[in-house]
Specification:
By secondary structure, this protein is an alpha/beta fold. Helix content is 19%, strand content 28%.
């Protein structure tokens, strides 16, 4: 199976540059995963497609303002860092730009010295390990100096930083938002719970995998980067009960999906656990955890497009995308939603 098989043409005008005024006003394309049949609605009506007893699993990771711009102390050259993962203490794995200007021992200053970073190690593909030097509380300093790490296809400036954050974001540590969750409002979540639908929260901190395209032709040769996840005892108990009782489990987003399938494939049940996952889901994968998925429209040739194709079929998904393009749906992070059931 080749990467090229997951390509499609998207007019640039359909790449959503800004979020809608109301999160839940997005369009919703509903697809039957077996037949590929389609129907249209708006996201606030997602509740009509869920039944009492169903489980909705959401990723409660919280995005940090991970993009910081500073300058080398010795030459004043401008350097941009994107914080990806906290290794330990004040050591972080970062994407750097321009990579070639950095060397081990390089000091970068941010905010006139409010924060400094010392390059401890140069890796490959633009990756560096840096040690941050500062006085005070790191996350408070980052709030002052950093900006939300919007994907490169978004060119508009985000006026309200909270719009690249789900309303239920809780556990700090993500370098990108779990964008399927951006459509939910607090009011809609209350309505869903009132109907008897169970909301269950897991955590996956989105890291480098989101920023790296598939560069091999044979998709089976692609290696996913490891991302940290948490499944709590409370969540595991609720999910196991749902499985036992034959109730539906719907994941909100590919990140929630990866947590659930990682745990289920490892333990053959839901279990309280945490760790790093590099699970790569593509057609041929046997889903053991989820029955359906709420998701956004994904980039051509991406691992996310491969994941949703695995849940239905590549033909059904590409046909749905073709339909969405014809109907002028908005694509990617701030775009419209899809419910694969």
């Amino acid at each position: 199976m080749t990467t090229q098989e997951f390509d499609y043409e998207l007019p640039e005008s359909l790449i959503a540059q800004t979020p809608l005024k109301n999160r839940s006003d997005s369009k919703l394309l509903i697809m039957d995963k077996k037949t590929g049949s389609l129907e249209e609605d708006i996201f606030k009506n997602i509740i009509n497609y869920l039944k009492p007893g169903d489980c909705l699993v959401l990723n409660d990771t919280k995005v940090i303002p991970a993009r910081i711009i500073g300058e080398k102390v010795d030459t004043s050259a401008v350097i941009e860092l994107l914080l990806l993962k906290n290794i330990e203490n004040d050591d972080w794995q970062c994407l750097s730009r321009p990579f070639k200007r950095l060397h081990e021992g390089t000091i970068i200053s941010f905010g006139n010295g409010l924060l400094k970073a010392k390059v401890m190690e140069k890796k490959e593909e633009g990756l560096v390990i840096v040690r941050f030097l500062y006085s005070g509380i790191f996350l408070e300093i980052l709030e002052k100096l950093g900006t939300m790490p919007l994907p490169p296809y978004i060119h508009e400036k985000l006026k309200d930083q909270t719009r690249y954050q789900t309303v239920y974001a809780k556990n700090i540590g993500s370098s990108a938002a779990p964008t399927a969750g951006l459509h939910f409002t607090k009011e809609l979540l209350k309505e869903i719970e009132a109907k008897g639908i169970e909301l269950i929260y897991v955590t996956l901190h989105v890291g480098l995998g989101t920023f790296r395209p598939v560069e091999v032709e044979d998709i089976t040769k692609h290696k996913m980067h490891r991302e940290y996840y948490i499944l709590s005892k409370k969540a595991a108990m609720k999910l196991n009960a749902a499985k036992k009782e034959g109730r539906k489990i719907y994941a909100v987003g590919t990140t929630s999906t990866r947590v659930l399938e990682t745990v289920m494939h490892k333990y053959n049940e839901f279990k309280a656990t945490s760790g790093n996952t590099d699970i790569f889901i593509y057609p041929g994968f046997e889903f053991q955890a989820i029955d359906g998925l709420i998701t956004n429209f994904h980039l051509p040739k991406s691992t996310l497009l491969m994941l949703v194709s695995a849940l239905s079929s590549k033909e059904n998904i590409l046909n749905a995308y073709k339909y969405a393009i014809k109907q002028q749906y908005r694509f990617f992070s701030f775009g419209d939603a899809m419910f694969i059931k």
